[in-house]
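YM 10:42: Reverse transcriptase domain-containing protein sequence, as discussed on the call
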Amino acid sequence: MQEIVNAFSDVSKKFGLKINIKKTEVLYQPNSTRTREEDIMVVGNKLNAVLTFTYLGSTISSNGCIDNEIQRRMAKASASFGRLRQRLWNNHHVSIWVKGKIYRAIVLSIHRYGAET
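YM 10:58: structure's back
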């Protein structure tokens, strides 16, 4: 992994870019051949090792467990459902059909985002 990071850093420099050490983290995922965490360095600085991080709205964990991601998605869907209470769910002028369409478009899409991965 260190060789890949070094190559990426070198190519980045050629384009006038540099890796932000403060924002870059390492998530170690052990497998059957590697059981210990390795220090990854960028320009002489050790990257911070974390157990979980959020990437493109999805939480990735070092142990591969998705429980936190599912709970987070359910909380976001519940929050979006609650925000629609006053304007939509309690509004008797909006048909059940429209309410169902909005529920599927907003609440379910938030809950299911990233589920295929």
